[in-house]
Amino acid sequence: MESSKWVIPKVNDQIIFLRILSQKINAKYAKLIDSDFGNSQLTYTTMIKPSNALFCILLWASILSCYKQVHPPTVRTILLEQLKNTHTNEDWFTPLKKATGGLTAIQANWRDSTVNHSIGQLVSHLIFWSERVLTAFQGNTAPDFSGNNEETFERFTNVSWDQAIVKLDSIQIKWYQSVEKATDKQLAKWSSSVANICSHNAYHTGQIIYIRKKNRWWPKPEEKK
């Protein structure tokens, strides 16, 4: 039977733990080798047999658990995750890029008989605030703004709608590129604003999806790619 070899990043706090666990394994089937701590690697070799397969799984889970504790989430990683989840990653909810994909300018400009905004107006609004806060986050001065939020909701032509979708996508990409490069001091100052941008995107994405489903513009399950 073939043996498997796993190379695991060295974590000093795990060495004693692994040695104790290794004593529980039948020497005929497994052995723990820690001969090269200088290379910051811990090598574990075992014969995978039914009798010790469960132990191997539990051991591996324990190692991963300890390793994650050494690398806890940071403000940067959390913000990057949220930025990507609201943009392209379909995790807890449908992301913005999917919600706005495949629409025509006519559909984007459709409005009901109430004061509700159209999809196009919502996209215009998202572009305005995402770009404005990003500009400030990057240390630049944002353009003058009257403060009237209604001015951020614009209508689109066929050409300008396609351009708007491209611009919205570009701004979201610039956001997580900027967060990746940001200093810790910069993140400490702006973390709340970045988190609010994510919430703002998710909120209006829900409105966009509602309009699409109301008008049967949302693809049926069998049509999804």
TrEMBL record:
Residues 98-189 form the DinB-like domain. InterPro entries: DinB-like (IPR024775), DinB/YfiT-like (IPR034660). Pfam families: DinB_2. Signal peptide: none annotated. Gene3D superfamilies: dinb family like domain (1.20.120.450). This is DinB family protein.
